[in-house]
Write a structure and sequence with these properties.
Helices cover 38% and strands 18% of the residues. With 597 residues, the chain is of the alpha+beta class. A seven-stranded mixed sheet has the order 8-14-22-18-19-20-21, sandwiched between helices. It is globular.
């Protein structure tokens, strides 16, 4: 009887959900019409502004231009602007790995990092507004450049101090190593055991030496860290006999597959991996940030990545200390219950960001609606500059993009536009057929559904500053700027009253050449992006199992990470109906990352 009552309640909940979905669909149609009308008017204003700017430029242009000597005219114009093409090239520079990074052989300087460029450079100069707008935009650009220069100086000072400490430590290590060799003692350096001369007078092993002389073996990622003597690695109960760099499994500590899948995907993001394995993150740890974990999560995560990238040392490790640290700072992950890997990913990235935030004193920035005639790219630039005043870390540089949120009052048609940052895209899944072959649902279908307008009503009504009251409104969230590493999360779990279900809709997504241009509003070109990691979920709501499929950053082959087991798979295995979280990287970002290895 109890079961029958539950079934009846579930049926009533389902009927109510279907009714609400029908009402929501009707509301979306009216909201979309309202937003479209506002968008058309805004587009006309932008076009009129462009025409006025063009007319002003033509009126201010000199009466004649000597086109017979184009190089001379170009050089003169650059001289007037105080810049030259050579200076622009110098701004990009190469990648200075510092004293702790491997020395690359002579080669062309890599391109500037696409994720760490000037925020002002993301806005085309030809997209400026009127005279007042140009002054405001110039001020913002100057402030952004000034803050970026200050941050660059701070980082250089920290890197110089750290390089000095590393050199001193390396000299001491080499001197100690020489004394041990002279006395015939065996020492451990990384994964190669080195000792005194053999019976024939030859070396038994090869020493890792510095650039001043001796044998040279380029040790990927880890440099001279001694893993076998590292107590933090021994705490992970390693099982020896690994098969290669980055191919170490993570043992399940009791429903921790959600954590293991996320860590394996993140460990194959080249700049993030090198940042932690080379200990570069230590110079950025902010132990005084009240929103952070006093550096504990960052340091535990760094130790975990060093063990994963120890080469042929470890077949698997147990991330016991990392799991304990996570549980101390988020009670949700303390026990042995199965958790959502996307929720863990959000917590981990946020914790790493706060631990590594270079901003020690956060200034209060009051959010206010700009004048209605302010171009959106100016509002976006100011919003991103305000965001960077309070948040400056490698996590922001790699993973964060920008949304444009538009609210239209359905009573007075008042419009509010806000720009906010995001770390990942959570995409809804359509219940009906998609645009793919045979009616299959594609990633592009999910992106279109994400950008649709919705009606805000009931308890969620929006306070209209013009009506001075809470009103029904049409809301639309769109992508303005994309990050270098794009994380896509499929919203597969839905909750309606007591009814819970997992949406098993298979999604078709590209492995290469993901084109995001149709969905990006700002100056960002939108890709293309290539897939390098997938977190997969198998099973239902009450449990299930997580695995990861990721592309190794060294051999560029795909591997299945199923807790402690690591298996090479084909590229087609990255396309799975169990996909839950996708990790994409922009192609130009991947080309830059190759120079870091």
């Amino acid at each position: 009887a109890e079961r029958a009552r539950q079934l009846q309640q579930w049926e009533r909940d389902r009927e109510q959900a279907e009714k609400r979905q029908l009402e929501a669909a009707r509301a979306e149609q009216s909201a979309a019409a309202a937003v479209a009308a506002v968008g058309t008017a805004e587009l006309e204003r932008e076009r009129e502004s462009t025409r006025l700017r063009s007319a002003r430029k033509r009126a201010e242009a000199p009466p004649s231009v000597d086109r017979s000597n184009k190089p001379a005219a170009l050089a003169a114009g650059q001289a007037r602007n105080g810049e030259s093409s050579g200076e622009e090239e110098d701004e990009g520079g190469g990648v200075d790995e510092g004293a702790d990074g491997p020395r690359l052989p002579a080669r062309a300087a890599p391109p500037p990092p696409p994720f760490a460029g000037s925020a002002a450079a993301a806005v085309p100069a030809s997209d400026a507004g009127g005279e007042g707008t140009e002054d405001e935009e110039s001020r913002i650009r100057r402030e952004v450049r000034s803050k970026e220069a200050e941050r660059a100086r701070t980082r250089q000072e920290r890197q110089a101090a750290r390089a000095k400490r590393l050199r001193e430590a390396e000299e001491q290590r080499i001197e100690q190593q020489r004394r041990e060799e002279a006395s015939g003692e065996r020492v451990t350096a990384g994964r190669v055991r080195c000792g005194g001369g053999g019976g024939d007078g030859s070396k038994r092993g090869v020493m890792f030496a510095d650039e001043r002389g001796g044998a040279h073996i380029r040790r990927p990622l880890t440099q001279v860290r001694r893993f076998r003597k590292d107590a933090s690695v021994q705490d992970m109960s390693p099982v020896y006999g690994g098969s290669g760099f980055g191919l170490t499994g993570l043992r399940n500590l009791g429903n921790t597959c959600f954590m293991n899948s996320v860590v394996q995907c993140l460990s194959n993001i080249t700049p993030l991996c090198l940042y932690f394995v080379r200990d570069t993150f230590e110079q950025d740890v902010n132990e005084n940030n009240p929103l952070g974990t006093k550096g504990e999560i960052a340091r535990r995560f760094g130790n975990l990545l060093k063990a994963l990238w120890s080469g042929h040392n470890f077949k698997s490790i147990a991330p016991t200390k990392f799991k304990a640290a996570v549980g101390r700072w988020r009670e949700q992950f303390e026990g042995s219950q199965q958790q959502d890997c996307q929720e863990f990913l959000a917590f981990l990235l946020d914790g790493l960001h706060e631990d590594l935030n270079l901003v020690t004193k956060r200034a209060y920035v009051e959010a206010a609606d700009p004048p209605p005639d302010t171009p959106h790219h100016v509002i976006a630039l100011q919003a991103w500059a305000d965001h960077k005043q309070r948040n400056d870390s490698l996590i922001v540089d790699l993973f964060q993009g920008q949304f444009r949120s538009t609210l239209v009052c359905l009573t007075c048609r008042n419009v509010s536009v806000r720009f906010t940052s995001f770390m990942y895209l959570t995409l809804p899944l359509p219940r009906r057929g998609g645009s793919g072959s045979g009616g299959a649902t594609t990633l592009y279908d999910c992106l279109k559904l994400f950008s649709r307008a919705e009606k805000v009503s009931g308890d969620d009504q929006w306070y209209c500053s013009q009506c001075k009251a809470h009103r029904d409104a049409a809301k639309r969230i769109e992508i303005w700027k994309l990050p270098a590493v794009l994380i896509v999360h499929f919203s597969r779990f839905s909750y309606t009253g007591q009814w819970r279900e997992k949406v098993e809709t298979p999604i078709k997504y590209p492995l290469h050449s993901l084109d995001m241009r149709p969905f990006v509003l700002g100056a960002d070109e939108g890709g293309p992006y290539s897939l390098h990691g997938v977190a997969c979920h198998f099973g239902g709501m009450e449990g299930g199992h997580y695995t990861a499929v990721a592309k190794n950053i060294f051999d560029q082959r795909w591997y299945l990470f199923d807790d402690a087991r690591v298996t090479q798979v084909s590229e087609s295995s990255a396309r799975t109906r169990a996909a839950y979280v996708l990790f994409y990287s922009r192609v130009d970002f991947q080309e830059y990352a190759k120079h870091m290895l």
